[in-house]
Amino acid sequence: MKDANQKRAIAKDTAFRWVAFACTVLVLGVLAVLLIDILSSGLGRLNWSFFSNLPSRFAERAGIVTALAGMASLLFFTIIIALPIGILAGVYLQEYGTRNRLARIIEINIANLAGVPSVIYGILGLTLFVRTLGMGNSLMAGALTLALLILPIIIVATREAIRAVPGSLREASYGMGATKWQTTRRVVLPSALGGILTGIILALSRAVGETAPLLVIGALVYVPFIPEGPHDQFTTLPIQVFNWTSRPQAAFIVNAAAGIIILLLITFLLNAIAIYIRSKWYKKIHY
Amino acid sequence: MNYKLQARNANLWYGEKQALKNITLGVEPHTVTAFIGPSGCGKSTLLRCFNRMNDLIENARTEGEFLLDDKDLYRDIDVYDVRKRIGMVFQRPNPFPKTIFENVVYGLRINGINDKRLLEEKVEWSLKSAALWEEVKDILHKSALALSGGQQQRLCIARAMAVEPTVLLMDEPASALDPISTAKIEELIYQLKRNFTIVIVTHNMQQAGRVSDKTAFFYLGELIEFDTTQKLFTNPEHEKTQNYITGRFG
Predict the structure, then answer these.
(1) pLDDT tens per residue, chain A (287 residues)?
(2) Which residues contact residue A124 at a Cβ distance below 8 angstroms, ignoring those fewer than 6 apart?
(3) How far apart are alpha carbons A252 and A250 in whole angstroms?
């Protein structure tokens, strides 16, 4: 009797292990298939002219220079807008704000904002920046929209990084007669910098991949010039890829695959930098 | 009597709970005074009243007078000035994740002193006073976190001294250290009283006996006995003091 029970338990144990293993393989397998598929169709298309050419209606001549330039300038303006606001808001909420019911409600809402579907931000951007403020489908309208999108991520990351700074360091600073601002600027922020930086890069890597909000505010799919200022129209790499995949010709699908490879590389690179900085910072803080 | 530091009818509450009950005590200049007593007796709380670190605790409320020389620490001097004149060393070494040099000059930099010569002089003086100079003079621009626990604590003492306070408060400064580092800190405390007035909270009664001139025994927020260290440890007036120092409770 006992023997049968034990056998069943062992069988269940083995079964569980295999199911868990199968799930892992399934996930990795799907990822591998995606990568192999993309690489096999797109890798051959990657050459210098693909980077330097303007978009074209002939797939062989089409390049991503405007998409890359658009994306770089979009991220530049996004960071300039979101960084100071996000960090200062995070500092205020964590170091200055009082702990009451209102603070908790704000806290939860900011966390919720980080999870709002990006297309909603697109609609907000369309109403506020493109129409009400009359910016049109310009780079600035896109940057402001993306800034709104990544602000909650930066705020949450800043707060968490600041929270990780040991209270004993603040005491040491206050104990010598430092003001709150001196303590924040000279002790808390430098100690939290690694964590804040990690959050910023992760926010950026999210912004890199965003397509939906930019489509909503009217980023163009065909832009034959490199944007020269914040009022110019623009396109980005994900939009370019989106456009190519919707074309009927097979050659454009190859272009799309090549574009996806570049996009994946950028995202991987940003994430790798973030992980590196975080691990270095973590060692510095936990002594 | 001419006191450096005084508490007069001091009371303190954390919310509803009274942590200090009507404490009056005076600390003479250039002496070491030890606060002893079981956990939760109020000795650290009283120490932190003297440089207003309790202000940082949201629901803490103080009553009574705390004086530095003749000035009321809560009325006559602003809080930042109080903490510059009355330095503090904490239980666990808490150097900033900066270089040794930048740790020592922190208090000077927040006062707007950036003259390189002056900073270098202060660093040398402070580290020598903290008996750390010989060990770190060649690695001043390396991270303070690379030092041992005992060295870090002496660095924290040097950092507190760099702004030249007249009083140093030490909250169990050796409790996180090994016996050799502890001996060094005690030796240092003995030397420092030439320049500073020192108040030290300690759990270790041998330590209180070794380093202090006067000792105050606290129990449940009250000051039970305050006398010369020799008198308090050899012939205490109160039974509670007697029981505590002989290890019958606490």
Answers:
(1) 568 888 899 999 999 999 999 999 999 999 999 999 988 888 888 888 888 888 777 777 778 888 888 888 899 999 999 999 999 999 998 888 877 888 888 888 988 888 888 899 999 989 898 888 888 888 899 999 999 999 999 999 999 999 989 999 999 999 999 999 999 999 999 989 888 988 888 888 888 888 888 888 877 766 777 777 787 888 888 888 888 888 888 888 888 899 999 999 998 998 898 888 888 877 766 54
(2) A145, A148
(3) 5
Q: Which of A166, A182, A285 sits opposite B110 (nearest CB)?
A: A182
Say yes or no: A182 contacts chain B, CB-CB below 8 A: yes
Asked if residue A144 lies in contact with residue A125, where contact means CB atoms within 8 angstroms, the answer is yes
- Residue ranges of the alpha helices (H) in A164-249? 167-175, 180-183, 189-209, 212-217, 237-245
Chains A and B form CB pairs within 8 A to the count of: 68
**pTM of the entire structure?**
0.79
Quick one: residue B15, left, alpha or beta (phi over 0 = left, psi -120 to 50 = alpha)? left
ipTM of the complex model: 0.90
